[in-house]
Amino acid sequence: MSPPHSALSILLSAALVSAYSFTFTSKPQQCANLSLQISGSGKPPYSVLIIPYGPSPLSNNVEVRTIVSQQFSGDDSSLSFQLKFPANSQFVAVVSDSSGFGSGGTSVAASVLNSSDTSCFNATHSVSPDFPYNINPANQVVQCSPSRLWWTPSQVQGTPNFQGVIPGGDSFSIPVGTITNVTDMGTGFQWVPTVRAGTTLLVVSGDNRGLGTGGSDLFTVSAGLFPNSSCATNTSPSSTAGPPAGGSYPTNASGGTTSGSSGSNNTGAIVGGVVGGLAAIVVLGLVAFYIIRRKTGPTSRKERPVNLLHGDPDDNEPPSSYQPPPYLQPDPYLVTAPTISSTSARTDHVRNSALLSDSLTSSAWRQSAVTSLSDPRSTTPELDAGALTPPTTALGSSRKSGMSRQLRAVNIIQHEDAGPSSAQEPAEPETIELPPAYTNLRKEPN
Fold first, then answer.
1. Given this model, what pLDDT does residue 276 score?
2. Same-domain pairing of 155 and 113
3. This prediction's pTM
4. Mean pLDDT of the chain
5. Which residues cross the membrane (predicted)?
């Protein structure tokens, strides 16, 4: 954004350049006189160029309008001439003085009002310019991109001239560059438009017979496939902010007029449209987001902070009926931890078994009754019916668990051999009392 003093300096510069202005003192009307008045300190002689704008309103698109170039007489500041344009057609007026083309300003497209007089034109016969001109690339003007303006030498008188006219903005002379002859593109020169993209532009051509004898074409300056604004500056021709030149005059068929507080600024309209469109898109996006949020809000699970001191309310829910596959189900660990009582009982059992091992071979009863195990996860040796059984070791390493197994205390008892058997002391005689057998019964004598 330019600083305020920069914008003020531009406006002051524009006021100094355009030290005079013009106004229409009569409304444009079909086949009637059109009057203009110059005010300010211009440099006479003055002139006005009337350029047809837009399509013809006549049936079959018959074009009866031609570019009109009128000179003021001497130092006069007023002019009146017959406007040979049909009703409902439009034109753009450009006023100049001796300082240059378009120095007095350019009007917006003015509309011609209806009248009963139709004698100034033939509604069935189209007119054409004195010579045609061409532009390459055809039918387009691209910002900062070279264009070739060319013509057929046999159809012109002298060297053609070209002007650029921006309705309601700046008008300027197009500088004629080095003239060359190109096959299939005639005689012409290269022109680099410094007009900004989006601007409405009329290109007018003329020769020694006067301004506009080669006709005009209407363009909208484009940015091109590869936009380039290197040639555009603050002084580049553009639509002028503020009231348009020409004062108050009709701008449509219904008689609507311009006013001192309004103007035509194509660039401003384009920027305003773009900003308005973006704002509408943003608003629609916010509305759509709000509607979607309302629909999905109640069903969505809100994120809750983690609280290590309180349980999750979901923990009170009943467990699901999901059953893990068989290979994921845990197997019970059947080994029981030894206790003091069981260890003592087994020790006594082993000692008693050693005393009763006379029937065993000397190699059998000399074996160790229990083998100690160093693996804290192994089981306690089992003894069955007084016989020694080998210890079993749990293969805990073959089963994996999500939690590490807690080690338990294991009491290890080392048993000793009973040694050689000692001579047994003679046992005390045992008295066994038996009941009578009743086998020696005698018969009583008779």
1. 82
2. no
3. 0.55
4. 76
5. 269-292
Place of tokens 């500041």: 77
Locate 3 and state its tokens: 């600083």
Strand partners for 235: none
**Comparison of pLDDT for 7 and 244, the residue scoring more:** 244
Instruction: Give how far Cα 136 sits from Cα of 131, 178, 186, Å.
Output: 17, 16, 11
Q: Which residues contact 86 (CB under 8 A, 6 or more apart)?
A: 30, 56, 57, 58, 64, 65, 112, 118, 121, 123
- Both 90 and 141 in one domain: the answer is no
The whole-number pLDDT of residue 439 equals 74
Q: What is the model's pLDDT at position 266?
A: 45
DSSP-assigned letters across all residues of 351-397: HHHHHTGGGS-HHHHTS-S------TTSPPPPEETTEE-------GG
Q: Please return the burial class of 111, using the count of CB atoms within 10 Å of its CB with bins 0-12, 13-18 and 19+.
A: buried
pLDDT value, residue 192:
95
Q: Tokens for 248, please give them.
A: 């108050």
- For the chain, what is the domain count? 2
pLDDT, one tens digit per residue, over 152-183 is 999 999 999 999 999 999 999 999 999 999 99
The DSSP annotation for 191-205 comes to: E---SPTT-EEEEEE
Dig out the tokens for 133 from the structure. Answer: 């001109």
CA distances from 75 to 79, 97, 239 (A): 11, 10, 29
Query: Phi then psi for 349, rounded to 5 degrees?
Result: -65, -40
Q: Show which of 227, 258, 273 is a domain's final residue.
A: 273
Could you list the residue range(s) of the whole structural domain that residue 61 is in?
Answer: 1-127+243-273
Q: Which of 219, 240, 261 is the last residue of a domain?
A: 240
Taking residues 106-128, what's their average pLDDT? 94
Higher pLDDT, 208 or 359: 208
Burial degree of 235 (CB within 10 A; 0-12, 13-18, 19+) = exposed
The whole-angstrom separation of Cα 37 and Cα 368 is 139
Is the pLDDT score of 37 beyond 60?
yes
C-alpha span between 365 and 360 (Å, rounded): 6
User: CA 243: distance to chain centroid?
Assistant: 39
